[in-house]
Amino acid sequence: MRKSREVTWEDFFVVLLSPMELDPTMRMILQVPMWAQRVIYIQGSCLKDADLTRARMGEAEACFILAARSYADKT
């Protein structure tokens, strides 16, 4: 019988999908080797099927949608 190994955070990718351009602070964070191999940033909208396809939403284990409480342009 084959023993299964423990699943760790290294087994997953995180995709950040945002309509905003990546800010300099986040760009710096995502260049840290620990995150650079696991976190992918895509500029787009979770309201557009094409962007969800680019983010490979159909293959995702989970999805978290975070929205700003006050955002002027809600498109």
Brief characterization of the structure:
Helix content is 21%, strand content 13%. It is of the alpha+beta class and 75 residues long. Strands 1-2 form a two-stranded parallel ribbon.
Q: What is the H-and-E element order?
A: EHHEH
**What is the β-strand count?**
2
Across the major sheet, the strand order is 1-2
Gyration radius, rounded: 15 Å
How many distinct helices?
3
Compute the separation of the termini in Å.
53 Å
Question: What is the percent of helical residues?
Answer: 10-25%
Question: Tell me about the biggest sheet?
Answer: 2 strands, parallel
Per DSSP, what share of the residues sits in E-state strands of 2 or more residues? 5-15%
Membrane topology: Multi-pass membrane protein
Domain RCK N-terminal: 10-72
Keywords: Ion channel, Ion transport, Membrane, Potassium, Potassium channel, Potassium transport, Transmembrane, Transmembrane helix, Transport
Pfam family, one: Slo-like_RCK
